[in-house]
Amino acid sequence: MGDFKLTTVEEFEAATERLLETGKKVGADAWQYRVKNQTPHCKFGEQGICCRICSMGPCRITPKAPRGICGCDVHGIVARNYLKFTAGGAATHSDHGREICHTLYCTDPNGAYKVKDPEKLIRIAKEWGVETEGKDIYDLAHEMALKALEEYGKPFGNQNFIKRTPQHTQDLWKAQEVAPRAIDREVSSSLHMTHMGCSSKPEALIRQSLRVGLADGWGGSMAGTEFSDVLFGTPKPIDTEANLGVMNAENVNIVVHGHDPSLSEMVCEYADDPEMIAYAKEMGAKGITVSGVCCTSNEVAMRRGIPMAGNFLQQENVVLTGACEAIVVDVQCIFPALGPLSKCFHTKFITTSPIAQMPDSEFIQFSPENADENAKAIVKLAIENFKNRKPELVHIPDMKQKATVGYSLEAIVKVLDGVTNSQVDTLGTTKPLIECITSGVLRGAVAMVGCNNPKVRPDTAHIELMKKLIANDIIVVASGCSAQAAAKAGLMDKRAKDLCGAGLKRVCELADIPPVLHMGSCVDISRMMNLVAELAKDSGLNISQLPVVGCAPEWMSEKAVSIGNYVVATGIDTFLGVDPYVSGSSEVAELLTGGIRDWVEAAYTVETDIEKLVDKMIDRIEEKRAAIGI
Ligand code: BF8
Ligand code: SF4
């Protein structure tokens, strides 16, 4: 292994402690302090048994008060809260997808946004039955953008992308009435169902939770992923680095944070511009370093190799380095704390989206029409801020790992093609991967996704689970903050193959891949859905029969619950390390962990003990193998 060694969570924590010391000097607040003020949490909220959807309430359910004023029982209240939570997540992912479709509509051969992957655009157009022959690629892009936007409000029919699933899945969804219709309709119907005096039957509310989740996973998120690839290129394996040490004390540091690549792509573009680099030098810096936090970081890491400064609970740390000239954000998962925190330093906190406006920020509204000039203005602002640094506050932890990222479905199919000795021409199929699984070289796969959450020691669950899975010859595909946890630890370094069981190690060597594959941001969990759909079709199995499970051990957001619902509804058992506010209702908990299996052939497991969580996943994978006789 040479000098390769994983970075431990203890080392992450020591680095954070040192940064918090800097914070104390300037009177900065941090989530580590706020969490103490917020705990213990409200028990009613934790169990999901508080209802405040009408002004007769809030009603809280106790043994003495088993029903709200309207007569709703605890099961109705918990299920309603769960559906609202899911709808929030589905709306958020899908609105991101919508923005991408708008950007696609604004593509112009001479403009800021171009079509970088015309083949993919043509492939999706053919899939949707759109004539491509002899059409100018930009005309096609505009036509497809309109078609994609129609998916949000189509009056009839289901999401186009669900045709990618095996027929069995489509039949099941139809029979169970969970096939997703127009995206906006599913979100609206969910909010209609949860209005005062509508649904209070847990089965109906949970069924709609699956449906609105599917509108996200096979609708809005998938549009986000697919058309981002068309716009910015389909990711291919690329080398990068992860953790705070990617920031450079001698350079102007710009940190991009959020989710929508339309902004970050442009910022990266201008940060690379020789004119801007010369300007940075003029201002006393050696150059410009762009790094990222959260999913926008995943997007630009996958396509440009831009280094990842950290994940969700590390967002304050980038400012605490004292070396961040600008933290530029778009939407989602952005701490409002960044406003007051940046005021303690010289950092410019730049918000750019009308969707995410925050106090103590500079708002530079970003749109496809002004992308060029505003990205340039943002980069300039950061450069001009370099001189305002306080050298005595600058400390960047010397901590980073190498990572190979960029494993889109297309890339995975390509790299794994070299693994088996199959004589048939398997190019373009997942058959080599299936052979690895059926032969037992790989036992199965786990999709590790989701956030950090102070309820779990940050990153520990992600890293410990992955270590045990790969040691057991289970390949891991990761996205979102889970992927960044893996990268920070070193699990996306190809040398991590030495931590694998013999089978996975061999696959890593033959295919020249790390054991944990970075599949992108959270909307890119749609890539994982496409992967399992292809695996099922190529193997002749149902998705639910594949030895594959999903896991979100440190999740926190509404989006994560929406994801969980579409992953389960697609037929993949999903393991959660944090309870989704449903413990107050035995009926809802039972439905989610068991009853829905009768509808969609998969269900949730909630387990807060990490050791038990990983063992349960391995057991489930082995059960699935046994059931299909491999
Ligand atoms: O969409 S994993 S903390 S950054 S919600 Fe957010 Fe969670 Fe990170 Fe990306 Ni996903
Ligand atoms: Fe209370 Fe019913 Fe109103 Fe909810 S809908 S706040 S349970 S009266």
Given the structure, what is the number of helices?
A: 25
User: Poorly predicted ranges (pLDDT <50, ≥5 residues)?
Assistant: 423-427
- Based on Cα principal axes, name the global outline: globular
Mean pLDDT across the residues is 96
Rg from alpha-carbon coordinates: 24 Å
Distance between the termini: 32 Å
In the CATH classification, which architecture of the largest domain applies? Answer: 3-Layer(aba) Sandwich
Ligand identities = FE(4)-NI(1)-S(5) CLUSTER with Oxygen, iron/sulfur cluster
Helix content: 40-55%
Structural class: alpha/beta
User: How many separate domains?
Assistant: 3
How large is the share of residues in beta strands?
A: 5-15%
Number of strands: 16
CATH class of the largest domain: Alpha Beta
Topology at a glance:
Elements: H1 9-25, H2 31-38, H3 43-47, E1 50-51, E2 59-60, H4 74-105, H5 118-127, H6 137-150, H7 167-175, H8 183-193, H9 202-232, E3 238-242, E4 252-257, H10 261-271, H11 274-282, E5 288-293, H12 294-304, E6 308-310, H13 315-320, E7 326-329, H14 338-343, E8 348-351, E9 362-363, H15 371-385, E10 401-405, H16 409-416, H17 431-438, E11 444-448, H18 460-471, E12 474-479, H19 480-489, H20 502-511, E13 516-520, H21 525-539, E14 548-552, H22 558-569, E15 574-576, H23 586-595, H24 597-600, E16 604-606, H25 610-627
